Structures
1.
Amino acid sequence: MTSPNARSVRVVFAARMKKRRKTLRLSQKALGVLMGLPEDVAGVRINRYERAVHECDSETAQQMADALGVSLAYLYAETDELAELIQEFMQLPAKDQHALLADIKSRSKTNRVR
């Protein structure tokens, strides 16, 4: 039996992948083919992932993220804000990522002290 939390993670993943696929204007079949799935089953498999009927294993989830041009963390982010933050962060050069992370840590420490 699937736990409620595992089900919600699958639903979040499904919704986020579907949204990204539509943003890229890819059909379910086209996404599946980009992931390396056989053409005759690609659309059906993606449809099942998007409806949260089936859960991707870690390798398939990574292939999905790669095909969609996003990080795996983006697909599993619990909120839209966190997903957006992850995407924006990943677009920054490494130097800026380190600076931003240092700033966030500094702000976090300041808020904990209050």
Note: The chain is about 75% helix and 0% strand.
2.
Amino acid sequence: MAHIASPPAQRAPQLISLGSAAERFDVSVQTLRRRIADGTITGYRVGRLVRVDIAELTEKLLIAIPSVHRTA
């Protein structure tokens, strides 16, 4: 009998408010709303509130700047 691999388990999002996320990443709430609107990040509606996943913000908003090594 062939073994069928199950799909990887998805982690539950760790949702925080837009205000908390804006403070944590030093951006405005409006910037987060724009990123949700343009599809860069996912917004989750919980009742009337909008929340974002902290792991997704870390992945998509923090972009490493490559270092430039200059030789003399």
Note: The first strand starts at residue 15 and ends at 17.
3.
Amino acid sequence: MFDIVTFGSATRDIFVRSKDLKVISSPEFLTGKAIAVEAGGKVYIEELIFATGGGGTNCAATFALQGLKVAYVGLIGNDEGGLEVFRELNALGVSCGFMKTTDQAPTPYAIILSLPSKERSILVYEGASHLLTENDIPWDKLKEARWFYISSLAGQSAKTFEPIINFAAANKIKVAVNPGQDQLTKDSEIFKKLLSKIDILLVN
């Protein structure tokens, strides 16, 4: 029996820190400002860090570090990035038996551009995690879980949100949800309908 099973993205994060990145102000941007580099120039990087990220895997790692028995359900690419995700989760004690690989898309990546002033922007490459379908979820092996934690589900994987919630309700599994844009905008009516089946709602 698992204390908690997490659902959501599994990514490789690349943290890039450079004092040569500049903040410019312009009404063209939603926030009124942007991180910029000189066109045609060369930017030197002071710090470059590779790590595993993603809503589903980050939370799986956090729960495992608290001593809980945790499994992650999701898709990674059949590539080096996916292998690194597997290695890091496995080393932290997260059960990776429900994590599948696919040749349809690479493992997702996020490039985090950071300035010394703490300003940052994130470049996101979606990828394998967003291709998860109901057929990729080992339903029979999840019935004894105590909790499900569902992070943002985007793209094709957003269609699994309702089935996961309904499965949890049918099997008396408690549910914590940190919804993403698809749940709050594209599928907002479905989300509202499922609210009564959610035990903990996290909105950041």
Note: The chain has a mean pLDDT of 93.
4.
Amino acid sequence: MKQDLKWWQKSIAYQVYPKSFYDSNGDGIGDLRGIIQKLDYIQELGTDLLYLNPICKSPMKDNGYDVSDYYEIDPMFGTTEDMKELIHEADKRGIHVIMDMVLNHCSDQHEWFQQVLKDPEGEYADYFFLRKGEGENPPNNWRSIFGGSAWEKIPGSEYYYLHLFTKEQVDLNWDNPRLREKMYRMMNYWLDLGVSGFRLDAITYMKKKEGLPSFPADGPDGLVSVKHGTLNQPGLEAFLKEMKEKTYGKGDYFVIGEMEDADVHSMQNFISLKNGYFSCIFEVSHLSLGRKAPNYFWFEEEEWDPDELRDQLLNSQTVLCPDMWIATFLECHDIPRAADRLLREEGKNFYGFSMLGMMYIYLWGTPFIYQGQELGMRNFAFPELKDYDDCSTHNQYELAREYGFTKAEALKIAQKGSRDNARYPMPWNSGKNGGFTEGTPWLPVNPDHKEINVEKEREDKNSLLSFYKKMVALKRSEEYSEVLATGKITPFQREQKGIFAYTRSNDSQSLRVICNNQNESCRIELPKAFRVLLNNHSCLEKKEKTIELLPYQAVLLEDL
């Protein structure tokens, strides 16, 4: 018997970074009308859920994650009418649209904070966290996510304000019921406009530890990671419960919570399929690979083994299934490209890229494809620091210099870790600027667009784009969509080095995903006869119930 599923449980999402997707008016910046013009491409890929990064009015100190007006579309992207048209045109193609919602903080240009600058003890003071300093020092020793103190002094005042990210991103005080009501009203405005849900940015930072205390320093700067007093604090769940009741809980919406450092063993209240605060959270366990806790300085990367990726993903999968939902992804706007981040040098080719796709797209949950991932877009090291727009790139460069690295070494560190690796323009063809714009692109276009672009890969049935279409089509097919949406997930061959393998099964079907994430062949014994549904190589060496996978080969098999 088929289960009664939510619409998003069978969906495959496509994430668009609007500024870099397609420029419709030649100003060098992607926009909403550009997305409208490329909706057929998104539909052609087979995806039916479009996730937009921030588009609200913003000074763009952190590319839209510093909102100055929650009700207005930033003019660089278009107008509210353009947004309405995008939602309408997407709906005609069977595509739902969700948008990024930044609730933990707003821009220092927002009218509420502008009022605070005029009067730090006035009506809007308790919309934020304002505190007097400790003598000549800030109120506590918290270090912001991007480095340096998490406090900035208000000019001409004895007050400091809290900012977990850049000083232009002022933290909102969710303990204030008046603020909460205004935020709920704003969220309902966008739901009424027609969006199908939200991705809630930095949502687990909203509740701060009572008293905002200092903690023992964890670095030579005398500061401590702000996460100690802000991440997943008691009281957060009360905010989320109220938010759901007053906004998206009233309809059939898809809402993703960005929960950094979330422990999947304690996620029942957050992402239960019965009554979670969200529809799901992003599966972020693989983001910790190579990162040295508790801080993440880009120059402190650690070596890691490919089997750690397998273990990170599969450990959480077995906990989540079947009662909780997850959003799976390889790439997003906040991390370098998966091709360079998750693969050894010998695997940075079609086989490695397609193997990574096979690895995650059939896991339990809703898979997200980030723009250009389906093309095999790579990291792109800009020649000079000034070429980078990403604020964290500049911050990490300065941190590296403070810790004794030379300018050349610090630049290399910044180039490798920069979020701009995932934000430079989408290549549509091999022409000028990759067909992204007729003007001057806001970020440099990767010179490899001559080979890696939509037009070329569309025409090549053996391209990565073509393989992604096959993966998506199979997941959404009438024959296999049920088992790939709700089938039990069971890891196997975990003792075999380099092998990432699991089954998806129900009462009538059993599928096996087997990926060889290493530069050597590997023989695998299977318990049953099988047939091949998908293979990223042109052949598969098999004998009865035994297969031998080539380096970076991935197959999807059906038990007979």
Note: The first strand starts at residue 13 and ends at 16.
